[in-house]
Specification:
With 611 residues, the protein is an alpha+beta fold. The chain has four domains: 10-70, no CATH class; 81-280, Vaccinia Virus protein VP39 (Rossmann fold); 302-415, 2-Layer Sandwich (Beta-Lactamase); 503-606, 2-Layer Sandwich (Beta-Lactamase). Helix content is 40%, strand content 22%. The protein is built from 20 helices and 20 strands. The strands form four sheets. The chain has a seven-stranded mixed beta sheet. The protein has a five-stranded antiparallel beta sheet with strand order 12-11-15-14-13, sandwiched between helices. Helix 1 (10-21) runs parallel beside helix 3.
């Protein structure tokens, strides 16, 4: 069922987000999207979408807050434990046995948020395969559009509360203490890779045995969900396992997957040979290495010793060769040769290579990406990337060369006195619009009423699930704030007790005044000497306090002390609250804060016994 008509200015706001920041929300459900944007606008007292668009243009920091409001990241280790238990005990053992002992095991967590689910899969596979086989065979990819959440996932460090759902024996085995937090083991962490990927517009990761996308599709429209499901079908090998969330029901009408267990939302890809090749042509490159037009060995030898990093891809996206410089600089290994472009980390880091490579294949014209910086272990290098077509009688592939321009860029920056802002623009891949198969017109007219009712029920269910996620996220935030306030209160109480103990430890009376001589502190010994309580003199000019001590004689030395002239002391005759005459030594010390005088400390000690 189509979403209701959007209010004025709403679609223009979404288009601005797409053009300025690369976030395409056009496939999201308008009701959920509008509710979250409206909630953000209410918090900053903005009524209209046009006004909010102007606010974004003049306040770029608002983008991060807005995206955090839209992209609610609710996740956790072993979330919905029964699903993970069934997957571990019933599904994966059978599937891994079919694969054999050496075949690679690739998994993809789509919409991974802060990474807990990706590490959950890593724990399960390590338990089933053994740690040695896990490191040798397993590759796990976690993707999301939220850069802040991906940064948390890459750190692989979580609080005690976040790892609370991990069984104790597994927590001790796979996590290491890091202060008051827990870090996933670094030797296994290398098998888990995180990156930004838009499920609707970017090319999917392929050759997978396991794909999880839990409670992510529910934010999309029905057409967009179907589009993403087809991409999942392309990504999985025949017989591969797909795990969805409880709120996603569109797959029940798909012929591309068969249910393994509907209760736990676990499916298996139906074999459909030939579909991968037809879809794969939209994403990649390939040429026949036996073709006579392929460069001969001397050319390949020259490429191997070329001083700049270089990569060669065929017209189907397969990595054919990488010279020694590229292998050393970007970590490309022999294991990566023969892999598809979109499956390689270098396809999106340090720079997006998919867009220029696709453009070169389409237009057969060289492309150049200017001046990006690769910071590796503190060694920052500036590159210009040249993407060149390899042609003979036909297109054979592309060659990607990274030209080291560090010295040139340094010279240019010295010549330019004004600062140069370098913005790296992320170009979107050309999205492939995949439509659902057209049903027979006669059958469609018969079931149209039933389909409409079903879609309405599905939409209502997904809205309820979304609201529950939002409430859970808000509750977690309130719990965190309350805990911080409690800790701060305890710290303040402890500090007050400490200061009280310090002042009470003085043998004589202690009075603290501010820079205007107003009383800020009057200890119990001063009260005992002169019979005046702190509550009676707080905020009063100390020279105006009427006690048995001739305080008026302290005016000049106190003023000198407040001007920063150092300590002052004098001995005065006084009468205690009990009427006894005494000699009192009064010492005045400046109260300093960051070198500035903010008041004085007056200490009154009896030097002679009462007369």
């Amino acid at each position: 069922m189509a979403d209701r008509q959007a209010p004025p200015g709403f679609e223009e706001l979404l288009e601005y987000l797409k053009q300025s920041r690369g976030f395409d929300f056009t496939g999201y459900k308008r009701a959920s999207l509008q509710r979250r944007i409206d909630n953000r606008m209410r918090r900053i007292d903005i009524d209209g979408y046009d006004e909010y668009l102007d606010f974004l243009q003049f306040n770029p920091h608002e983008f991060e807050t807005l995206f955090n409001s839209i992209l609610i990241n609710v996740t956790g280790f072993f979330r919905d434990l029964s699903t993970w238990t069934y997957l571990r005990e019933e599904v994966l053992p059978v599937h891994l046995e079919k694969l054999g002992p050496e075949r690679p095991v690739r998994a993809w967590v789509a919409g991974c948020a802060s990474g807990e689910e990706a590490y959950t899969i890593a724990i399960i596979l390590a338990e089933l395969l053994g740690e040695d086989a896990f490191v040798r065979r397993v590759e796990i990819y976690g993707t999301d559009v939220d850069a802040e959440a991906l940064a948390v996932a890459r750190s692989a460090t979580y609080t005690e509360q976040q790892v609370g759902a991990v069984p104790e024996d597994l927590r001790k085995k796979y996590f290491e203490r890091a202060g008051d937090q827990f870090a996933f083991r670094s030797d296994l962490r290398r098998c888990v890779v995180f990156g930004r990927l838009d499920l609707v517009n970017d090319a999917p990761i392929s050759r997978l045995e396991l794909l999880t996308c839990r409670n992510t599709l529910m934010y999309f429209t029905v057409d967009t969900q179907a589009h993403v499901i087809e991409r999942f079908n392309f990504a999985l090998n025949d017989g591969g396992v797909l795990v969805l969330g409880k709120a996603e029901t569109l797959l029940s009408r798909s012929r591309m997957f068969e249910p393994i267990d509907r209760k736990h939302r676990i499916f298996r890809k139906v074999p459909n040979h030939g579909r991968r090749d037809s879809l794969g042509n939209g994403f990649g490159l390939h040429f026949d290495p036996t073709d006579a037009d392929v460069p001969m060995s001397p050319h390949m030898l020259a490429f191997g010793v070329f001083p700049h990093p270089g990569l060669i891809f065929d017209v189907k996206g397969v990595l054919v060769d990488a010279n020694e410089t590229a292998r050393r600089r970007f970590g490309v290994t022999a294991r990566d040769l023969g892999a598809l472009l979109q499956d390689l980390e270098i396809s999106y880091r340090p720079i997006d290579l998919r867009t220029p490579i696709t453009q070169v294949l389409r237009e057969a014209r060289p492309q150049r990406v200017f001046d990006f910086v690769w910071d590796h272990d503190g060694d920052a290098t500036s590159y210009d990337v040249h993407v060149l077509p390899l042609e003979s009688s036909r297109m054979l592939g592309v060659c990607v060369l990274f030209e080291d321009c560090t010295r040139q860029r340094d010279l240019e920056r010295r010549l330019e006195l004004s600062s140069v802002e370098l913005e790296q623009a992320y170009q979107e891949l050309q999205s492939t619009n995949e439509e659902l198969e057209t049903m027979n017109e006669e059958l469609q007219s018969t079931i149209e009423a039933l389909e409409t009712t079903n879609e309405e029920l599905q939409s209502t269910n997904e809205e309820l699930e979304t609201m529950n996620e939002e409430l859970q996220s808000t509750n977690d935030e309130l719990h965190t704030v309350n805990e911080e306030l409690r800790i701060r209160g305890d710290e303040v109480d402890e500090l007050n007790r400490f200061l009280q103990a310090v002042f009470e430890s003085f043998g004589g009376g202690v009075v603290v005044v501010d820079e205007r001589r107003r009383v800020r502190f009057w200890n119990d010994r001063a009260e005992d000497l002169w019979g005046v309580r702190e509550a009676e003199v707080a905020g009063t000019d100390v020279l105006a306090v009427d006690v048995g001590l001739p305080i008026g004689e302290l005016a000049e030395p106190l003023d000198r002390c407040l001007r920063g002239n150092g300590n002052e002391s004098t001995t005065l005759d006084a009468v205690t609250r009990r009427g006894r005459s005494v000699r009192c030594l009064v010492t005045m010390t400046p109260l300093l804060a960051d070198g500035d005088v903010e008041g004085a400390i007056i200490v009154m000690e009896l030097v002679d016994a009462p007369v």
